[in-house]
Design goal:
The structure is a single chain. Helix content is 65%, strand content 0%. It has 280 residues and is mainly α. The structure holds fe (ii) ion (FE2).
């Protein structure tokens, strides 16, 4: 459990931050349709991550204050994406810069969080800088780990939504911004298959094709933290939707079955914890 009302974020703070976000994003709007498409994609994603963090947070009985704090994190988690895309025309961090760190820099330079208490500000900046790391540093405070994990879960839920619908769009609607400039070729890398068979997370550096990227996205279930998130991934059938766009091979079937049983185990485990709590 997270302690309640530790970091004050008021309804009026949240309103002002939403207005700031919209003004900031609109300052990058461009006549270049490729740039504009990339910006709007991330703007909409940011709003949907706000909805998802509230969906998870409410199921975890967060206080109204903590829900507002979480919403600010979600709203700003990808704030570095706008400068990144406007400047480099790519969302690939290794070809441009780390968008989590860039986001922290933007918020600090623009003094966007100045109205919030210093401790809330620090927590928000840390969760943003950790949201796109392979993992969250274990030596952080309990509260920082709690919110950083919540943000990572909400972000993943929306990426699952985005990619599981996107892969069904026809060629004309496909976008290099989502596919990270990876080639849509039939192969799947041996290295990726080996990592997945061992239940390991895959690093972005190992990606060679769009199929590799789809497998990496499916493997994000290993990095999910909270039971409401596991439940929503299962109910929305995200893994199967991505799996159905991959080649029908035995190797991929095996990996899909493994990921699905991991998902179910985590739902069952949290259900039995709840039952025990009710009994006691
Ligand atoms: Fe994101």
């Amino acid at each position: 459990m997270v302690s309640q009302n530790e970091y004050q974020v008021t309804e009026s703070d949240l309103d002002h931050l939403k207005q700031w976000f919209s003004r900031y994003v609109q300052s990058f709007y461009s006549a270049d349709p490729v740039v504009q498409e990339g910006l709007v994609l991330k703007e909409k994603h940011s709003f949907r991550v706000c909805d998802e963090i509230l969906n998870i947070g409410r199921k975890m009985d967060l206080s109204k204050n903590n829900l507002r704090l979480a919403e600010v994190m979600a709203l700003f988690h990808d704030i570095g994406r706008f400068e990144q895309f406007a400047r480099h025309k790519t969302f690939v961090d290794k070809k441009s810069e780390n968008h989590g760190q860039l986001g922290v820099k933007v918020l600090e330079q623009e003094n966007a969080l100045a109205a919030l208490p210093a401790d809330a500000r620090e927590l928000i900046l840390k969760s943003i800088s950790y949201h796109n790391r392979l993992s969250v540093p274990e030596d952080e405070s309990h509260i920082c780990l709690y919110f950083s994990r919540l943000l990572r879960d909400a972000d993943k839920l929306d990426i699952f939504h985005l990619v599981s619908t996107y892969y069904y769009a026809d060629g004309a609607e496909r976008s290099a911004a989502i596919e990270l400039d990876l080639p849509d070729t039939p192969e799947v890398s041996e290295e990726i298959m080996a990592c997945l068979s061992e239940g390991k997370l895959i690093s972005m550096q190992h990606l060679r094709s769009l199929n590799d990227f789809k497998l990496l996205q499916m493997a994000w279930v290993y990095d999910v933290n909270y039971s409401p998130t596991f439940q929503m991934i299962y109910e929305r059938d995200y893994l199967r939707k991505i799996r159905d766009t991959l080649p029908a091979t035995e190797g991929i079937d095996r990996i899909y079955a493994r990921l699905m049983s991991y998902l179910k185990e985590n739902i069952d485990a949290s259900a039995s914890v709840k039952e025990k709590q009710h009994e006691s």
